[in-house]
Amino acid sequence: MYNQIKNAMKTLKNISLYAMIILLAFSFQKASGGSSGILKKGDQQNYLTLKGKVVDAETGTPLVFATIAVSESNVAVVTNIDGEFTLKVGESLVTKNLEISYLGYKSIVLPISSMRNNGYKNMIRMETAPIPIKEIVVKPLDPDAIVQKAIARISKNYEDAPNLMTAFYRETIRKNRQYVSIGEAVIEIFKAPYANDIRFDGTRIYKGRKNADVEKMDTLLFKLQGGTTSVLQLDIAKNTEAILTMESMKYYDYSISNFIEIDGRPNYVIDFIQKPSVDEPLFMGSLYIDMDSYAITEAEFGFNLSDKEAATSMFIRKKPLGVDVTPKVATYRTKYREQDGKWYFAYSRAEVKFKVDWKRKLFHTYYTTMSEVAVTDRTAEEVIKFAGKEKVRYTDVFTDKVSAFADPGFWGDYNVIEPDQSIESAIRRLSKKLKFSDRQDYIEQ
Predict the structure, then answer these.
(1) How far is CA 1 from its chain centroid?
(2) Going by C-beta distance under 8 Å and a sequence separation of 6 or more, which residues neighbour residue 199?
(3) What is the mean pLDDT of the chain?
(4) Which tens digits make up the pLDDT trace of 220-234?
(5) Which of 75, 218, 369, 416 could form a disulfide with 168 if both were Cys (CB 3.0 to 4.6 A apart)?
């Protein structure tokens, strides 16, 4: 039994969900700019910009990553960590409704015509949604059986045809509490069928920008590798090997921790953690499983970092001599959106915190990397797999493929995740630094 576990863990260790969620490369060279590999797409005109903030009706607490979707369409976005959102809606959709949903809360439907285009004064207050006991008692309460049903129904619950998705991607790096690098892009995602193991997901960049303050990185330059492709690996309903297979279930203990409503539907909250007998580091967290369909609707999980050596080998691609880098926190989140009886990938986020120690320095430094992607539109019509030269590769560094911040109207009518207050202030700071640097270059010439 022990050898079987070790062999299975070696197999799991090679899959990209383990090795590629966050890969960091260290270098003493400055990052280069440029815009190679970026596809161009003409901006559309005539759209309505909706802004708002989603909060708890009783406490006023911002609801983070709430879904804001246009009814009878594939257009959607999520709130930022301040609960704020901006949604750009084409003229053909202004007669529709907005659907606001958040786990554990009653969904809200608002006519788009009722939204005022005046900053964040559209305050949307959501009420908690307790699950009636009668919804629970008639359902099986064996957590292992619930997870087994969720695995068995993946091919039924998720799309069996390829989709082309438009999405917004953001990655950031913080040194202690200060942002030192921010990159953003509108990307296209080729989403392969869930029941097909041969066709892989892919991404390509339409439009992107970045800003970085290399001087504040302690001569140590963090580069996040393959970011736009790695966040897709968090689609655990498709990349099932580490968590959602009958084989991987042997290495986890499951328990029902709660019952919660998501988008008006009752869900089980299934907690999982690796068995004490398993030595190799695995994941731990919570699966949200729809009571009726057994679809996985959301997932929140983290990586077991108790084995320092094993955890470091998972995340660090290379580092300079004389530096000790230790992963301290690794957390992940994935959300799906239901339409016409099928669940579609909607959002994912990865955040990893590292402690960096120089052998000849007294104090250590903490770096935190974050990458997230939100699907803002999708189609199943005339979907063609991306050509190899267009695709972002796992070895690509996103911030090396896009140019610097410049135009304040850069995004046009694309839907993006609204920056939170700290990111917004960092963008202003880095943009001012960029303008000053450009001016100095001009004077020197």
Answers:
(1) 36
(2) 162, 192, 193, 385
(3) 79
(4) 566 677 778 888 889
(5) 416
- C-alpha to C-alpha distance for 394 and 228, rounded to whole angstroms: 9
Rounded mean pLDDT, 406-425: 76
For 280-298, write each residue's pLDDT tens digit. Answer: 888 999 999 999 999 999 9
Residue 17: pLDDT over 50: no
Residue 332: which of 18, 90, 60, 101 has the closest Cα?
18
Give the domain ranges of the chain: 2-38+132-444, 47-126
Contact 185, 234 (CB under 8 A): no
For 341, other C-beta atoms within 10 Å of its C-beta total 9
Starting from the edge strand earliest in sequence, which strands make up the sheet with 123-126, in order? 84-90, 47-56, 123-126
Q: What is the DSSP letter of 76?
A: E
Instruction: Report the amino acid identity of residue 275.
Output: K
CATH entry, 47-126, from 3.40.109.10, 3.90.180.10, 2.60.40.1120, 3.40.50.300: 2.60.40.1120
Burial of 71 (0-12, 13-18, 19+ CB in 10 A): middle
What is the token pair recorded at 50? 């909706």
Q: Report how far residue 256's alpha carbon sits from residue 236's, in angstroms, rounded to the nearest whole number.
A: 19
Q: Which alpha helices (H) appear in 177-251, and where do they start and end?
A: 227-230
Spatial distance between the Cα atoms of 385 and 188, rounded to a whole number of angstroms: 11
Q: How many residues in total does the chain contain?
A: 445
